[in-house]
Write a structure and sequence with these properties.
By secondary structure, the protein is mostly beta strands. The chain folds into three domains: 66 residues, no CATH class; 39 residues, no CATH class; 194 residues, no CATH class. The protein has three helices and 15 strands. The strands form six sheets. It has a three-stranded antiparallel sheet with strand order 1-2-3, with no helix packed on it. It has a three-stranded antiparallel sheet with strand order 8-9-15, with helices on one face. Strands 12-13-14 form a three-stranded antiparallel sheet. The N and C termini lie far apart (118 Å).
């Protein structure tokens, strides 16, 4: 009977001449070794070596690193940005140069605030857009209230006419407390700093409308301010109002900037029921009868 033998041949990867003492062996998976380090612009080289015999059986490139630049310094309205930046990788020093985008920006003012950098265009004592004097500045802004809440807006400055209005005026009649007008019931309420800042315009609108047609002669303080109009370089400014008591306090604090600011001045704020708040340039706020006809008016506006 014939016997059949099956011979299985295994094909293996052999290396010859290994220095590990064997005539032949199987290559293991190997490790990559860097032959040439890459830099920012040039690729490097790596080789795959057998762990046992160190034979190289593959090569590949290492991607260039690319430059490592710091961020551009952005320009502002007052300083230029940089036009050159240098790669920070050791031994490189490559310069990246831009030809645009670094010039000093220009302020773009809207209502006295730069829309680019929030720079305040005016300081206290400066001449305002309507030819008056800036007497109050708020870097964060404050709400200017209107009888129509949809027209409430954020403003940053209060500007007063350079001189008071010509005529002595009365606040109104003393028969009632006018709804919607800022009302302070005690001198202690005045200590709340800025409590009525932003209310003068709304107060003036309400008082002027309330007093319209009542036939008070000659002048109602709120109506004097509401009817004021000034034209500067072709622009009409007709948004004047009687300042609230806290606005008036700020105005009198800056009286040195104004022409002949003496005497006592009406505010738009009332005191229950038949009085309103006023303030003298040399004293403190106090309430007096609304129908008194011996006090001055100083119109202001906000923007």
């Amino acid at each position: 009977m014939k016997k059949h033998f099956i011979i299985v041949l295994a094909v293996i990867a052999l290396c010859v001449g290994c220095d590990n003492g064997n005539d032949t062996h199987n290559h293991d998976s190997g490790i990559w070794r860097t032959v040439l380090e890459p830099d920012c612009e040039t690729t490097g080289t790596k080789e795959l070596h057998c762990n046992s015999c160190n034979e190289v059986f593959d090569t590949d490139t290492i991607a260039a690193l690319g430059h490592n630049y710091p961020e551009w310094t952005a320009p502002t309205c007052e300083t230029a940005g940089n036009d050159t930046r240098v790669c920070t990788r050791t031994g490189c020093g490559h310069e990246d140069i831009r030809s645009t985008g670094f010039a000093v920006l220009e302020h773009s003012f809207e209502n006295g605030i730069c829309t680019v950098c929030d720079f305040m265009q005016y300081d206290i004592g400066d001449t305002g857009p309507a030819g008056g004097i800036i007497f109050y500045v708020s870097a964060t802004g404050f709400t200017l209230y209107d009888t129509d809440p949809a027209k409430d807006k954020t403003v940053y400055y209060l500007e007063a006419a350079f001189a008071r209005e010509t005529y002595l005026s009365q606040w109104g009649d003393n028969s009632e407390l006018i709804d919607g007008v800022s009302t302070l019931t005690s001198a202690g309420a005045l200590s709340v700093i800025g409590q009525t800042i932003g209310y003068g315009k709304k107060d003036t609108q309400i008082i002027a409308a309330h007093m319209d047609g009542k036939g008070i002669i000659p002048y109602v303080a709120a109506q004097v301010c509401a009817n004021k109009s000034v034209t500067v370089d072709g622009t009409v400014f007709d948004d004047w109002f009687l300042p609230s008591i806290h606005e008036l306090m700020e105005l009198i604090t800056q009286k040195k900037y104004f022409n002949n600011m003496l005497g006592e001045y009406w505010s738009s704020s009332q005191y229950p029921v038949s009085a309103a708040w006023l303030m003298s340039t040399g004293g403190t706020p106090h309430p007096v009868s609304k129908n008194s006809l011996s006090y001055y008016v100083h119109a202001v506006r906000a923007f």
